[in-house]
Amino acid sequence: MAAASGRLTARAAAQSYTFDCPIPRRLPPRRPEAAAMDPLFVAYLSLTAALVVTPGATTAVVVRNTLSSGWRGGMAAAVGAAAGNAAHATAAGLGLAIVIARIPALLLAVQMAGGLYLAWLGIASVRRLTRGDAVPISGAILGANSTVEHHHALREGVTVNLLNPAIATFYLAVVPSFLPPGAPRGYYVQLAATHVGMAFACHSLWAFGMDRLRHLLARPAARLALEGLTATALLLLSVRVLASANW
Description:
Blueprint: H1 2-20, H2 39-52, H3 57-93, H4 96-102, H5 104-131, H6 147-162, H7 165-177, H8 185-212, H9 220-243
């Protein structure tokens, strides 16, 4: 009788303990905060916006092709530039950019090729300027849509960004600094896509904006002046890239 009473007392105590101290259920894992609400991502957006709105070599190429082929030529150059940015992002994600950075000869070759290509574009603009055919009065800037010229603009956009050491440095040094510890691979893809998209949007605005000014550029003096500014910008950027190369 005492044993039965002891078992009942133990069972009641167990039930009371179970009622008062329930076993906690496993909570579902917390979802990571949305990137848009992440202060680190907001800082990345601010820095990227400041970089893409600053005119550079790609901007000069977009303007140059808009002047020679209208907004379609400018957009073709912008698409090519976006492809070049995507190639840099992919190379950095696969570790190829680190290999280039660790081999001084390869990095120097990229810098020299980029500087010489900008110089070649600038000299080509100067030659058109001296011949007096910097921007035709009719034709591309007034609505032509030559497929050959658009392919040429696309190729220029790709090449100028592929050979731009500043973009390689951006993906090699800047983007990794905004990756939180243990971030999934998709977070890097999101950062890269943000830069590619923002740069493309900015270059598209340049193309459409310059095309909207074509009625002002119908005057020969304005056409020659703008072509001269573009040629000067390309040559100065070439000197800057070559001077900053790791000789």
